[in-house]
Amino acid sequence: MAAARPLLDALSSRVFHVGDRVGDGARTKLVNNLLAGINLVGAAEAIAMARALGLDAARTLDVIEQSSGQSWIGSDRMRRAIAGDFEPRAHMTLLRKDTALAVQAAAAAGFEGPLGAAARDVFARAIEAGLADLDDGALLRLLSVPKG
Fold it and tell me: Cβ distance 51 to 81 under 8 Å?
């Protein structure tokens, strides 16, 4: 780690040493990306629900951002999604891949949580709905479609 530190510092403004086993960094990234996916699905569901209740989505997000429901990824993606901006900064396929890999890694470790697979399935549904080339914030578009 000490020998690689100058290179790591040049590549990133934040370097974390998370463990001594090979792969601990990759496993930590899977955990982080799973939570990002769960948070994003939750944010899209909440804003879609706000719309279904007749609330102004942007004003609702204003409240959420100052309250207990705030998450960075929710704010970042939902601000753009509410404005109709689905230009990909992070393609939908990335969180589909990351959530699937995280759920697979969890299963291999004998762990099964209640939300990871649900988030994975929402991203898969978005891909099936033709949203693969859009920003992952397009989950709002997917979840805002009325059930018929």
Answer: no
User: HSE-up of 136 (CA within 13 Å, CB side)?
Assistant: 30
Are the C-beta atoms of residues 82 and 135 closer than 8 Å to each other? Answer: no
Residues designated catalytic? 29
CA distances from 76 to 11, 17, 43, 60, 82 (A): 24, 27, 10, 14, 11
Q: Which amino acid is at 92?
A: M
DSSP state of 135: B
Structure confidence by residue, pLDDT tens digits, 61-96: 999 999 999 999 999 999 999 999 999 999 999 999
What's the CATH superfamily of 26-144? N-(1-d-carboxylethyl)-l-norvaline Dehydrogenase; domain 2 (1.10.1040.10)
In a 13 Å sphere around the CA of 25, the CA atoms on its Cβ side amount to 6
As a residue count, the chain comes to 148
Distance CA 133, CA 127 (A): 9
CA distance 95 to 107: 18
Q: Which residue type sits at 84?
A: G
- pTM tops 0.85: yes
